[in-house]
Amino acid sequence: MPEKITFGIKNVHYASVTTDSDGSPTFGAVKTFKGASEMSLPPVGDAVKVYADDAVYYKGHVNQGYEGDLNVYSVPEDFKTNHLGEYKDTNGVMIEKSNAQPDDFALLGEFQADDSPKRFALYNCTAGRSDFTGKTKENSIEPNSFSIPITVSPIESDEIVKASIKKSDNPTVYNAWFNSVYYNPGHVAVYKATITITDGTDPIAGAVVVAGEKISKTDSNGEAAFLLSDDTYDVLVSASGFTAKTSSITVSGAAATLSVTMAV
Length: 264
What we know:
Blueprint: E1 5-7, E2 9-19, E3 25-27, E4 31-32, E5 36-41, E6 47-52, E7 55-61, E8 66-72, H1 77-83, E9 86-88, E10 94-96, E11 105-112, E12 117-127, E13 146-152, E14 162-166, H2 171-175, E15 191-198, E16 208-211, E17 214-217, E18 223-228, E19 231-238, E20 245-251, E21 256-261
Parallel strand pairs: 15-21
Antiparallel strand pairs: 1-5, 2-3, 2-4, 2-11, 5-8, 6-7, 8-13, 9-10, 11-12, 12-13, 12-14, 15-18, 16-17, 16-19, 19-20
Protein backbone atom coordinates (compact mmCIF):
# COMPACT_ATOMS: atom_id res chain seq x y z
CA MET A 1 0.00 0.00 0.00
CA PRO A 2 1.31 3.51 -0.76
CA GLU A 3 2.10 5.71 2.21
CA LYS A 4 -0.64 8.18 2.93
CA ILE A 5 -0.42 11.58 4.54
CA THR A 6 -3.31 11.71 7.00
CA PHE A 7 -3.64 14.76 9.18
CA GLY A 8 -5.51 15.09 12.44
CA ILE A 9 -6.07 18.52 11.09
CA LYS A 10 -6.75 21.95 12.57
CA ASN A 11 -6.06 25.61 11.82
CA VAL A 12 -6.86 25.14 8.13
CA HIS A 13 -6.32 28.23 5.99
CA TYR A 14 -6.21 28.96 2.28
CA ALA A 15 -4.92 31.66 -0.05
CA SER A 16 -5.46 32.32 -3.74
CA VAL A 17 -2.55 31.70 -6.09
CA THR A 18 -1.94 33.19 -9.52
CA THR A 19 0.83 32.12 -11.88
CA ASP A 20 3.03 34.54 -13.82
CA SER A 21 4.12 33.94 -17.41
CA ASP A 22 7.30 32.22 -16.19
CA GLY A 23 5.31 29.85 -13.99
CA SER A 24 6.18 31.51 -10.66
CA PRO A 25 3.34 31.93 -8.14
CA THR A 26 1.94 34.95 -6.36
CA PHE A 27 -0.16 34.27 -3.26
CA GLY A 28 -3.06 36.28 -1.91
CA ALA A 29 -3.97 37.00 1.70
CA VAL A 30 -4.38 33.97 3.97
CA LYS A 31 -7.98 33.25 4.98
CA THR A 32 -9.44 30.94 7.62
CA PHE A 33 -11.21 27.74 6.54
CA LYS A 34 -13.42 26.72 9.47
CA GLY A 35 -15.08 23.32 9.52
CA ALA A 36 -12.31 21.03 8.22
CA SER A 37 -12.14 17.69 10.05
CA GLU A 38 -9.70 15.42 8.18
CA MET A 39 -7.47 15.30 5.13
CA SER A 40 -6.06 12.23 3.39
CA LEU A 41 -3.79 12.80 0.39
CA PRO A 42 -2.06 9.78 -1.17
CA PRO A 43 1.01 10.70 -3.23
CA VAL A 44 0.79 10.69 -7.02
CA GLY A 45 3.78 9.40 -9.00
CA ASP A 46 5.67 6.12 -9.14
CA ALA A 47 9.30 5.09 -9.17
CA VAL A 48 10.58 4.73 -12.73
CA LYS A 49 13.07 2.04 -13.82
CA VAL A 50 14.64 1.73 -17.26
CA TYR A 51 16.26 -1.61 -18.11
CA ALA A 52 19.14 -2.18 -20.53
CA ASP A 53 21.63 -5.03 -20.90
CA ASP A 54 19.57 -7.15 -18.52
CA ALA A 55 20.04 -4.64 -15.67
CA VAL A 56 18.54 -1.46 -14.31
CA TYR A 57 20.07 1.25 -16.49
CA TYR A 58 18.28 4.18 -14.84
CA LYS A 59 15.91 4.67 -11.95
CA GLY A 60 14.21 7.76 -10.67
CA HIS A 61 11.17 9.01 -8.84
CA VAL A 62 8.28 10.91 -10.38
CA ASN A 63 6.64 13.31 -7.93
CA GLN A 64 3.36 14.57 -9.34
CA GLY A 65 2.04 15.85 -6.02
CA TYR A 66 -0.89 14.48 -4.05
CA GLU A 67 -4.52 13.70 -4.67
CA GLY A 68 -7.25 12.88 -2.16
CA ASP A 69 -9.99 14.40 -0.04
CA LEU A 70 -10.51 17.15 2.49
CA ASN A 71 -13.40 16.25 4.82
CA VAL A 72 -15.34 19.24 6.12
CA TYR A 73 -18.50 20.13 8.01
CA SER A 74 -18.90 23.49 6.28
CA VAL A 75 -17.31 25.52 3.49
CA PRO A 76 -16.67 29.29 3.67
CA GLU A 77 -18.71 31.20 1.10
CA ASP A 78 -15.55 32.93 -0.14
CA PHE A 79 -14.00 29.52 -0.86
CA LYS A 80 -17.14 28.44 -2.73
CA THR A 81 -17.13 31.48 -4.99
CA ASN A 82 -13.39 31.66 -5.66
CA HIS A 83 -12.25 28.03 -5.58
CA LEU A 84 -15.35 25.90 -6.24
CA GLY A 85 -16.74 28.02 -9.07
CA GLU A 86 -20.05 28.93 -7.45
CA TYR A 87 -21.59 32.40 -7.33
CA LYS A 88 -24.37 34.21 -5.48
CA ASP A 89 -27.13 35.82 -7.53
CA THR A 90 -28.97 39.05 -6.70
CA ASN A 91 -31.45 37.12 -4.54
CA GLY A 92 -28.77 35.58 -2.35
CA VAL A 93 -28.99 32.14 -4.00
CA MET A 94 -25.73 30.18 -4.50
CA ILE A 95 -25.49 28.87 -8.08
CA GLU A 96 -23.22 26.17 -9.52
CA LYS A 97 -22.50 26.18 -13.26
CA SER A 98 -21.01 23.33 -15.27
CA ASN A 99 -18.54 25.58 -17.14
CA ALA A 100 -17.09 27.30 -14.06
CA GLN A 101 -13.30 27.58 -13.89
CA PRO A 102 -12.36 27.81 -10.19
CA ASP A 103 -9.12 29.48 -9.14
CA ASP A 104 -6.18 27.54 -7.72
CA PHE A 105 -5.15 28.04 -4.11
CA ALA A 106 -2.59 27.23 -1.43
CA LEU A 107 -3.81 25.16 1.51
CA LEU A 108 -2.28 25.60 4.96
CA GLY A 109 -2.91 23.80 8.22
CA GLU A 110 -1.53 22.15 11.31
CA PHE A 111 -1.35 18.65 12.74
CA GLN A 112 0.16 17.05 15.79
CA ALA A 113 3.45 15.23 15.28
CA ASP A 114 5.00 12.87 17.83
CA ASP A 115 7.49 15.33 19.21
CA SER A 116 6.28 18.77 18.12
CA PRO A 117 3.29 20.39 16.38
CA LYS A 118 3.80 20.77 12.64
CA ARG A 119 2.36 23.29 10.20
CA PHE A 120 2.27 22.78 6.45
CA ALA A 121 1.62 24.52 3.15
CA LEU A 122 0.46 22.80 -0.04
CA TYR A 123 1.20 25.35 -2.72
CA ASN A 124 -0.68 24.56 -5.92
CA CYS A 125 -4.10 23.08 -5.12
CA THR A 126 -7.26 22.56 -7.12
CA ALA A 127 -10.62 21.65 -5.56
CA GLY A 128 -13.21 19.43 -7.20
CA ARG A 129 -16.92 19.47 -6.51
CA SER A 130 -17.91 18.35 -3.03
CA ASP A 131 -20.38 15.64 -2.08
CA PHE A 132 -24.05 16.61 -2.13
CA THR A 133 -25.51 14.49 0.66
CA GLY A 134 -27.99 14.57 3.50
CA LYS A 135 -29.45 12.28 6.13
CA THR A 136 -32.73 12.29 7.96
CA LYS A 137 -32.72 13.38 11.57
CA GLU A 138 -32.83 10.47 14.05
CA ASN A 139 -32.94 10.11 17.84
CA SER A 140 -29.28 11.08 18.15
CA ILE A 141 -27.91 14.01 16.19
CA GLU A 142 -24.51 13.49 14.60
CA PRO A 143 -23.42 16.04 12.02
CA ASN A 144 -22.33 14.56 8.69
CA SER A 145 -19.10 15.66 7.08
CA PHE A 146 -18.64 15.68 3.32
CA SER A 147 -15.61 15.44 1.05
CA ILE A 148 -13.95 17.97 -1.25
CA PRO A 149 -11.56 16.34 -3.75
CA ILE A 150 -8.16 18.06 -3.62
CA THR A 151 -5.37 17.80 -6.19
CA VAL A 152 -1.93 19.16 -5.28
CA SER A 153 0.46 19.75 -8.19
CA PRO A 154 4.08 20.98 -8.30
CA ILE A 155 4.62 24.67 -8.95
CA GLU A 156 5.62 25.07 -12.56
CA SER A 157 8.63 27.35 -12.08
CA ASP A 158 10.48 25.36 -9.41
CA GLU A 159 8.64 22.04 -8.90
CA ILE A 160 7.97 22.77 -5.20
CA VAL A 161 4.96 20.81 -3.91
CA LYS A 162 4.74 21.45 -0.17
CA ALA A 163 6.54 22.82 2.87
CA SER A 164 6.28 22.10 6.59
CA ILE A 165 7.76 23.40 9.82
CA LYS A 166 7.90 22.03 13.35
CA LYS A 167 7.55 24.48 16.20
CA SER A 168 10.70 23.06 17.79
CA ASP A 169 12.75 23.72 14.63
CA ASN A 170 11.98 27.42 14.19
CA PRO A 171 9.41 29.07 16.50
CA THR A 172 9.57 32.38 14.59
CA VAL A 173 8.62 30.82 11.26
CA TYR A 174 6.11 28.50 12.93
CA ASN A 175 4.30 31.31 14.75
CA ALA A 176 4.06 33.47 11.61
CA TRP A 177 2.95 30.59 9.36
CA PHE A 178 -0.65 31.78 8.87
CA ASN A 179 0.14 35.48 8.47
CA SER A 180 1.15 35.12 4.83
CA VAL A 181 2.10 32.15 2.63
CA TYR A 182 5.66 31.01 3.28
CA TYR A 183 7.33 30.54 -0.10
CA ASN A 184 11.12 30.47 -0.22
CA PRO A 185 12.50 28.75 -3.34
CA GLY A 186 15.90 30.38 -2.80
CA HIS A 187 16.22 28.79 0.67
CA VAL A 188 17.44 32.07 2.20
CA ALA A 189 17.19 33.08 5.85
CA VAL A 190 13.98 34.91 6.72
CA TYR A 191 13.04 37.17 9.62
CA LYS A 192 9.77 38.37 11.06
CA ALA A 193 8.66 41.77 9.80
CA THR A 194 5.77 43.30 11.76
CA ILE A 195 3.85 46.21 10.27
CA THR A 196 1.45 48.02 12.61
CA ILE A 197 -1.39 50.10 11.18
CA THR A 198 -3.23 52.75 13.23
CA ASP A 199 -5.33 55.86 12.71
CA GLY A 200 -2.96 57.76 14.97
CA THR A 201 -4.74 56.56 18.11
CA ASP A 202 -6.34 53.16 17.63
CA PRO A 203 -5.23 50.07 15.68
CA ILE A 204 -6.94 49.37 12.36
CA ALA A 205 -8.02 45.74 11.98
CA GLY A 206 -8.60 44.15 8.58
CA ALA A 207 -6.32 46.49 6.64
CA VAL A 208 -4.69 44.92 3.58
CA VAL A 209 -0.90 45.17 3.72
CA VAL A 210 1.39 44.35 0.79
CA ALA A 211 5.12 43.97 1.48
CA GLY A 212 7.05 43.26 -1.70
CA GLU A 213 5.00 40.49 -3.32
CA LYS A 214 3.45 39.18 -0.09
CA ILE A 215 -0.02 40.06 1.16
CA SER A 216 -1.48 39.96 4.66
CA LYS A 217 -4.26 41.54 6.72
CA THR A 218 -3.96 43.24 10.08
CA ASP A 219 -5.32 41.52 13.18
CA SER A 220 -7.27 43.11 16.05
CA ASN A 221 -4.04 44.78 17.21
CA GLY A 222 -3.55 46.37 13.79
CA GLU A 223 -0.55 44.13 13.08
CA ALA A 224 0.37 42.30 9.89
CA ALA A 225 3.35 39.93 10.04
CA PHE A 226 5.58 38.67 7.23
CA LEU A 227 8.59 36.40 6.89
CA LEU A 228 11.08 38.32 4.73
CA SER A 229 14.71 37.91 3.72
CA ASP A 230 17.29 40.71 3.83
CA ASP A 231 16.16 43.51 1.53
CA THR A 232 14.15 46.71 1.39
CA TYR A 233 10.49 46.20 0.52
CA ASP A 234 7.86 48.61 -0.74
CA VAL A 235 4.82 48.58 1.53
CA LEU A 236 1.28 49.43 0.41
CA VAL A 237 -1.55 49.71 2.94
CA SER A 238 -5.26 50.04 2.20
CA ALA A 239 -8.21 50.05 4.59
CA SER A 240 -11.88 50.86 4.21
CA GLY A 241 -12.55 54.51 5.00
CA PHE A 242 -8.89 55.54 4.79
CA THR A 243 -6.61 56.84 2.06
CA ALA A 244 -4.15 54.21 0.80
CA LYS A 245 -0.60 54.81 1.94
CA THR A 246 2.85 53.66 0.81
CA SER A 247 6.00 53.16 2.84
CA SER A 248 8.97 50.80 2.99
CA ILE A 249 10.56 48.38 5.43
CA THR A 250 14.15 47.15 5.52
CA VAL A 251 15.12 43.73 6.84
CA SER A 252 18.79 43.27 7.70
CA GLY A 253 19.65 40.10 9.57
CA ALA A 254 17.02 40.52 12.30
CA ALA A 255 13.35 41.11 12.97
CA ALA A 256 12.04 44.43 11.68
CA THR A 257 9.09 46.67 12.53
CA LEU A 258 7.22 49.47 10.81
CA SER A 259 4.37 51.69 11.99
CA VAL A 260 2.02 53.29 9.48
CA THR A 261 -0.56 55.93 10.36
CA MET A 262 -3.59 56.11 8.08
CA ALA A 263 -5.62 59.24 7.38
CA VAL A 264 -9.21 59.57 6.16
